[in-house]
Amino acid sequence: MESFFSRYKNPLLLMAVLFIQVIMLATQVKRPDDPKNPSSGGTRLIRVWAVNIATPVEKAFIGAGRFIRNTWHNYVDLHDVRSQNRKLQADVDRLRMEQVKLKEDAEQAHRLQALLEFKQKFIGTTLAAQVIGTSGSEQSRVIYIDRGAHHGLKQDMAVITPDGIVGKVREVYFMSSQVLLINDRDSGAGVILEKSRLQGDLHGSSQGETLVKNVMSDEKVDIGDQVVTSGGDRIYPKGLPVGVVTAVNPDPDRTLFLSIAVKPSTNLNRLEEVLVVTKMTEELPNVNQLSGPIRAADILAKRLPTVPKAPEKADGKTPDKDDKNQPQQKPTGKPEDKIGAGGATIPPVKPVPNAATNPVKKLATGTNSGAEKNSTSLPLKTPGTKTPKKPAEGSDQPPRAVPPKAAKPEKPTIVAPPANAEKPPE
After folding, report:
1. Quick one: which of 260, 271, 268 has its CA closest to 184?
2. What one-character DSSP code corresponds to residue 117?
3. pLDDT tens digits, residue range 176-192?
4. pTM of the model
5. Domain that holds residue 290
6. Type and span of the H or E element at 28
7. Where are the beta strands (DSSP E) in 292-425?
């Protein structure tokens, strides 16, 4: 059996020659980059064919590698993601609770501030000014601006920038003003440390440094703490940035105090434009804009002590101090005896049960009803008394009055009350 190459020797040889010829032509022929301009440079045809052949293979390899890498990172290598997700979710819940708490505290502080009528100072009106000159001396650090009395400027007006305070107006001229910078040795401002809430005085030095003084040496001051204005000097509004603490040293002049070096927030050596605070406004925080179910009055009512209410009497009146001092009369439990006309005491008569409720008494009263009618027409006679006799007709003597005798106390008749009768009050 003849082999494949020996059998198709001539066709295979012809195909090899044609292939070599095509390769040689592809290395010589160039493909122009711009078809409209064939004279421009181009890329050899063999390079174009090689790129077209290799690109699918490279895409296949890169896609397979990307698929394997994504599968590993997104599905296989996820053994710690579940625990990290729980931790992050717990942190998110905690931060949300802290946010709600801080929001409630802030709203409560604003309500209490409005309740106590604490006034806040705000910058009402500012005037932009341009720096037109400096002092030119190291002993005095001042600048000159192009705004003066003609524009409404006055002495001791605050000069600021968006970064922080700069100084105050020292001298006012008609069309210009002199500004004393905060790093001058004659300047001063009330400041407060934002973190520790310590208050002090900001002064400059002859070397151009800004120092905070009048802080006790036993206080702790951290480097990097922000310094803001306190508003106590009545010049700078409260809360404006001043600078950052860079060093804390004991005061060489006074050993009981500290000398805190502060780096100003504003670059005082490169001032071009500044703002002059021409008007300060005092406003109260708007409580209507705050929303919350808790009111300041309710919080104060819960925390402040209250006076207990005095017990009320049966008639609805509160007992007085005089009532407590008076002795209370105790009931004796026995009714008082009545005194008759002759001075004799008459014992109290027990109430007789009603005839309507006692059938036996009803019969007795029914039989004697006629006698009671006859007795009402007759005059009643008191035992032991005599009726005065009428004088005889024709006699001029007036009738003599007979003095009444003391009546003897009669024994009260005790009648047994029926079983169903109500018990009389004692």
Report:
1. 268
2. T
3. 999 999 999 999 999 99
4. 0.47
5. 85-119+284-308
6. helix 9-28
7. 338-339, 345-346
